[in-house]
Design brief:
single chain; OB fold (Dihydrolipoamide Acetyltransferase, E2P); 5-stranded antiparallel sheet; 1 helix; elongated
Length: 131
């Protein structure tokens, strides 16, 4: 799992569905959730988690896409296997892991030090701890 520390900036509730907005290192993030813990309030610091297989990597991306969470990262390591590649990313000191296909890693010519955008769908974030 990959983790980020963020601060809750807004909560919108509609028909038992919650849109929770956060800031992490001046980057806006959002999460959609059916269940929201009672102690989640605006201003609270939380730990967000996401599966490495749910992080999409874009290199030199400049266009529109529906992923609401976009993190500017630097690749710190790549571990290529026969089928999958594990890409370790630095986001302001937080280390994230993305799992992509080896074929994608090679076709994108990913290497250590590359600046990339990690993208996560709002439905793929969850809160694992409240501080």
């Amino acid at each position: 799992m990959s983790y980020l520390i963020a601060t809750v900036t807004n909560i919108i509730e509609c028909d038992m569905l919650h849109l929770v907005e956060f800031k992490s290192n001046n980057t806006a993030l959002s999460m959609i959730s059916l269940d929201l813990m009672d102690n989640i309030t605006i201003g609270k610091k939380v730990q967000l988690t996401m599966k490495p297989s749910h992080i999409v990597i874009a290199k030199e991306f400049n266009g529109d896409i529906s992923y609401s969470n976009r993190l500017d990262c630097t690749i710190i390591s790549i571990d290529n296997g026969a089928i999958l590649s594990s890409i370790r990313l630095d986001f302001f000191g937080s280390i994230l892991e993305a799992i992509i296909t080896f074929k994608s890693s090679k076709s994108m010519n990913l290497k250590e030090g590359d600046k990339v955008t990690a993208m996560i769908n709002a439905t793929e974030l969850s809160i694992t701890e409240v501080f």
